[in-house]
Design goal:
Helices cover 52% and strands 14% of the residues. It has 19 helices and 13 strands. The strands form three sheets. Strands 1, 2, 3, 4, 5, 6 and 7 form a seven-stranded mixed beta sheet that branches. Strands 11-12-8-13 form a four-stranded antiparallel beta sheet. The chain has a two-stranded antiparallel sheet with strand order 9-10. The two termini are 44 Å apart.
Length: 568
């Protein structure tokens, strides 16, 4: 899984479009970063920018944005309705996929240190990146706002985590609050009522803060206080969730509007189920869900798998089908069409032109792929075909697992087959990627021939590049062999335990996987033979031979099981 983080810096400028554009341009100039949203506020005099990418480019973009803000914004003259302490006021890192909150916290601390060391900007670390418990609260770090910074920086207990004395840089740029937090989902639950009061009651039932306690548990009784005179609260059922009820003129319905601040503790589908329960207890019905803004893909994948499991259906189906189940189960398309391509961060990050190049072969029709293979071009060749045969082997094993999970009378075994299907789906995706990667490896060798070779230095560089490209071309088919080998135990399990009517399909799965393995082995050998230095090739060749031997033994076992079914 690709490591993706989101960064949502808030800059203390919301009125000068030219200035805002310069900050955004500095961020967008970093390769590998995609700016998803720019939201300026006139009254707050503040702009929120949302961008995503892998950790390294996001950190660089965050640094450059802060650098440009320091250059353009002078906090001595800043005024706005929103609390603020610096030109770059808050700078949170948010895990989206393939990375933990703890890892983001470490990255945030490193970013804060760099901002001070290289730019002189004082930094407080907040939320998950905080060095002390009290500084987890952003309000504590920003207490007194910009105007209090000279006094705070002189106080050992209140000075920034990274920063020295009040100086010209601090006076101009203020202090930046760098943090790490979980992804926040803003979501509205549509109710079959126009009553704001009833919607608010449901919100009180579920939000962590809950409601004020009253005598007799009524909604209008006298407020109850403790021995210290403090209001007593009855907590709600969902940790880390904030919610209110309101009426939406545009739709003519009441909603429960919620912020889910920790999607690991309370996933979207868990919150949805609880709001449905609380609404039903009050005679109401949730008719649909409206996600405000963007979500990580895993939020919808987890929801889709939750509802598939509830139906005792296999989870080893395509990503598109899992998302469809999530959308329909939570009625995400109740008020308007829901397009994952417009709401899921990972999809918005995709560069269609880049994908078209990287996935040129697998995007072809079966007929088109065969025609391309049969053309005068040397690629795609045996390596890509081997990867595709391995992918077909994994796909067939997955099909048998899914058919077995859905077989009448085998409902209590659905999880057993679902687990196999999920593994098969992952292998199929891995092998399909290798179809294009093998051709890319061949093209790297072809590119070397276009390198200059006049001077001794150029000849040496060309020879080194050829050696590197050839070794890579030998390693890619070995990856095909490793992945295809993993498909064989799945085929064997399905031949032994799967739907007997599909036993022959399990057999063909094994034959396809082995064909992919043996074909890829030839590519390992022929590319390894082209290396001047044979030493790096020896472990590749040794591993390739071992995989072929193991694959042939597994193939025999699969075919023995298949023949038992055929002869029975």
């Amino acid at each position: 899984m690709k490591r993706i983080i989101e960064c949502v810096p808030n800059y203390s400028e919301g009125r000068d479009k030219g200035l805002i554009d310069q900050i955004v341009a500095a961020i967008a100039a970093v390769e590998g970063v995609k700016v998803l949203d720019v939201d300026p506020g006139e009254a707050t005099n503040r702009t929120v920018v949302t961008f995503v990418g892998e950790p390294e480019p996001v950190l660089e973009a965050a640094f450059r944005g802060a650098e440009k803000a320091k250059e353009l914004i002078d906090m001595r003259f800043h005024h706005g309705a929103h609390p603020r302490s610096g030109a770059t006021d808050v700078l949170p890192l948010i895990p989206v996929s393939g990375i933990t909150l703890e890892e983001c916290a470490q990255l945030a601390r490193g970013l804060a240190e760099r901002l001070y060391k290289e730019l002189g900007i004082p930094c407080y670390c907040y939320e998950a990146a905080a060095f002390t418990p009290e500084r987890r609260n952003l309000a504590v770090c920003r207490a007194g706002e910009y105007e209090a910074l000279p006094e705070k920086m002189a106080d050992p207990d209140r000075k920034p985590d990274f920063g020295g004395a009040w100086d010209e840089v601090a006076a101009r740029a203020g202090a930046t609050n760098v943090g790490a937090r979980n992804f926040l989902i803003a979501v509205n639950y549509n109710l079959n009522t126009t009553s704001t009061r009833r919607a608010m009651a449901v919100a009180f039932d579920v939000r962590e803060k809950g409601r004020k306690a009253r005598e007799g548990g009524s909604l209008t009784g006298k407020l109850l206080k403790d021995e210290n005179g403090e209001q007593i609260w009855i907590p709600g059922t969902l940790k880390g969730c904030k919610a209110i009820g309101w009426y939406i003129d545009e739709y003519g319905i009441a909603q429960v509007s919620m912020n889910i601040t920790d999607i690991d503790t309370v996933p979207l589908h868990v919150a949805y189920e609880e709001v449905c329960r609380a609404a039903a207890a009050r005679g109401l019905k949730v008719t649909g869900v409206e996600i405000v803004g963007l979500v990580p893909k895993r939020v919808l994948i987890d929801a889709g798998k939750f509802y598939l499991a509830r139906q005792q259906r296999s989870l080893g189906i395509s990503e598109e089908e899992i998302l469809k189940i999530a959308v329909k189960s939570m009625s995400l398309d109740d008020l308007k069409p829901f397009n994952p391509k417009e709401k899921v961060i990972e999809y918005l990050m995709e560069d269609e032109a880049e994908l078209a190049v990287r996935e040129k072969l697998v995007r072809m029709s079966v007929k088109g792929f065969a025609a391309e293979t049969a053309s005068e071009s040397p690629a795609p060749g045996g390596g890509s075909i081997s990867a595709y045969m391995g992918a077909l082997g994994a796909a067939l094993a997955t099909m048998v697992a899914n058919l077995s999970a859905h077989k009448r009378g085998w409902d209590n075994r659905w999880k057993e087959f679902s687990d196999v299907a999920e593994k098969g789906q992952a292998l199929m995706a891995e092998l399909l990627a290798l179809v294009d990667e093998d051709t890319a490896a061949f093209n790297r060798i072809m590119d070397v021939f276009s390198m200059p070779k006049g001077t001794p230095e150029e000849k040496a560089a060309r020879a080194a590049a050829m050696e590197e490209a050839t070794l890579y071309a030998a390693s890619v088919p070995l990856k095909t062999m490793e992945a295809s080998l993993k498909a064989l135990p799945l085929a064997l399990e399905m031949a032994r335990k799967g739907n007997p009517a599909s036993a022959s399909d399990a057999g063909v799965a094994a034959l396809a996987a082995v064909a992919g393995i043996r074909g890829a082995a030839l590519n390992v050998r022929i590319n390894a033979a082209g290396l001047t230095d044979k030493a790096p090739a020896e472990p590749l060749l040794k591993r390739a031979d071992a995989i072929v031997a193991e694959a042939l033994a597994l193939q025999d076992k699969v075919l023995d099981e298949v023949n038992k079914h055929i002869e029975a």
